[in-house]
Each structure stands twice: as structure tokens, then as C-alpha cells.
Amino acid sequence: MQALVLTLVFAAALLLSLLIKFWLATRQMRHVAAHRNAVPAPFSETITLAAHQRAADYTLAKGRFGLLSMAFGAAVLLGWTLLGGITALNEVVRDAVQPRFGGMAYQLALLGCFALIGGLLDLPFELYSTFRIEQRFGFNRMTWKLFLADMLKGTLVGVLIGLPIAALILWIMGATGGLWWLWAWGAWMAFNLLILVLYPTVIAPLFNKFEPLSDEPLKVRVQALMMRCGFAAKGFFVMDGSKRSAHANAYFTGLGAAKRVVFFDTLLNKLSPGEVEAVLAHELGHFKHKHVLKRIASMFAISLAGLALLGWLSVQAWFYVGLGVRPSLGAPNDAIALLLFLLVAPVFGYFVSPLFAQLSRKHEFEADAYACKQASGSDLAAALLKLHEDNAATLTPDPLYVRFYYSHPPASERLAALLRARSPLQPA
Ligand SMILES: [Zn+2]
Predict the structure, then answer these.
(1) What is the DSSP-derived secondary structure letter of residue 246?
(2) Which residues participate in catalysis according to the annotation?
């Protein structure tokens, strides 16, 4: 009975989320197509019609592709769950591995096979997106050789990092009793903090080259900005982002007040020194307002709630049966419980995702306001426009689509806020 209820609730949630996604995506595409032929008024002097239309075409191409991959993703999810994919995979792996190598090896093999199959199913979509869509709009700088090298390195890093943490969590689930989820949470948090430390110094350099910023005047300028804002720089680096993509970015890593600042080479090529400073000031604003800390804290809280829920679900037979999985009788079911939970939770999480998007947009406004105080607001506005144009982001998104998904406010709203912020000081 409970199993049937779960089946119905899951199927209904999946169907409803698909309908909403489809509705929003088609709204966005119609809206962008309808405004393709005219640059919106606030941008008519800075953005050419050709650039505007290129952005519209890029948005439409990505939107059509998004519909296809969305439908495929839902079919795969159904295949794994209600149509019996996990059960079939589990029986093959269990019977092959468990008798000879034991329960832990079997569970790790199950997770490994699942990840491998999932990766292979996603591969055609990744290839099409990189070598067709990004290529067509001139963003892709990736070669086949680099793509394969990335894939090999990514798999290796995934195995080296993923296998031990998976083994640890599975061991905790089997060995620590009813409160395993609390221990697992502790281990998961420690692991996340470790990755936070290791990523900039060990993992990122495997994929990109980092060179110290050699542009002295720019360095002096950004150093002064960081002093003003109360941060110590652990180093300024330029990353060869252009190796893979023409999209531009900048970021910070590091714990505490000492930050390692990383500029994509693509960013330095596109922006003037004043604009780079303003972009950096925006990023510093995220730290000053503790957005990063808040994000990490909420990630910790959500993980705790999720693991507590899984702690309860994993001992209910209807949790497995209701999602189309026959649990094993003579073997541990912890890996299956983890897999099922990771597959199904996002379906329900989708309905609360707009709340997080809204919070994120609020944070962006706060960071912009901070940047206006520490650097030039007009430089920030100019930088935003350039990055928008270079990334071929649409200037005419559907308002409802924005509310649901956008982690950053649309350019028109950000520029209007910047204009308001600086108008008392600089009469136009
Ligand atoms: Zn931001």
C-alpha cells in the first residue's frame, strides 16, 4: 500500500516537473524569438542588432537542445527506477562480485557500474553541446584530443576521490547502527572541506595552467582594491580558460581573509583594467556579505536533512519497492538506497529550486551595490554589458523563466540598479 502511494507520488512529481520545465522552456523560446528583431531600448546604443540576434539564436539553439536532453533524462530516470534498471544491474553485479569479493566490493562495483553507464548515456549530449552548439556560435576552443584527455583525467580523479569516500560512507552505513546518517554527515562535511582546500592547489592545476599575473599596473590596481576591502591576496593568477572556451570569468578560492584570485585569460583580453577591477570588487562583495559562507552553511544543513531522511527511508521496504527496486535479501542494500535517493531527490527538489534562485539574485544585487562603493559603477556596467554580449546571453528573457531559473538577475535589471546606485554622485 505505502509502496503504491510512493510510486504514484513519484510518477506525479516527475510528470508535473516535466510539464513545468517544458512550459517554461517554450515560453522562454517564444519570448526570445518574438524580440529577435529589435535591440531593447536601454541597449540600443551599446549592442548591435547582429549581436542581439546572435544571442537570440544561441538561446534558441540551447533551448531546443535542452528540451531534448530533458526528455531523455526523464526517460533514463524512469528506466532506472520504475522500469527495473537498478534491479537488473544490481542482480548482475551482486551475483558476479558478492560471492567472491564480499559485500563492500559488490556495493562499490554497483556504484561504479552505475556511474559508468550514466556517463556513457550523457556522452552524446556533451559531445553535441560542445562540438555542435558551442562550436557553431564560436565559443568552443576544445579539440578532440583535449576532450579525451579531460575525460580520462576526470574519470581518474573521480575514481581516486570518489571510491574512498563512497567506501567510507558505505562502511559507516553498515557499521555504526541507527544513527549512521549523523556519522555519514560528519564524514561528508569533512570531505567537502578537504576538497575546498585541495581544489585550487591540487585538482584545478591538473586541468589548467595557472601563471602569476604579469601585468604590473593591473596587479597594483587590484591589490589596492583588495586592501581597501580588507582582504589579503595569496596570489593573483591567470588561468588559460581560452584552452576550452571563449566564455570569460574570474573567481576566488581560499579560506579566511587570504584569497587566491584567478582571472581567466579570456576576461583580461576583453575588459579594460578598470572593468577588471569592478568585476573583482563584485566578487569581493560576495565575500563581504558572507554569501559564500551562507551558501556553504545551507549546503551543510540540506545535507543533514537529506541524510536524516535517507536514514529513515533506507529501512522501509516500501521505499525500494515503491521506486521499482527489488532489494537484496542476502546482501547489504546501502548502495541501492544511496543511488535511489540521489536519483529521486532532485525530482522533488525541483519544486523548491526557485527559492534558491531568488536568494541568489538578491545576493547578486548586493554584490553589485558593494562593487559600486569600492570601484566604479560605470566600469561595472560596461563590464557586464561586454560579458553579456560575449557570452551571447539574451537581453530579452521571459520574466517567468527568469523568476524560476536565473541565478543572476537579467542585464536590464542589474544595469538599472547600478544606474540608480550611482546617480546621486554622478549627475549624468
Ligand atoms: Zn556575483
Answers:
(1) S
(2) 283, 368
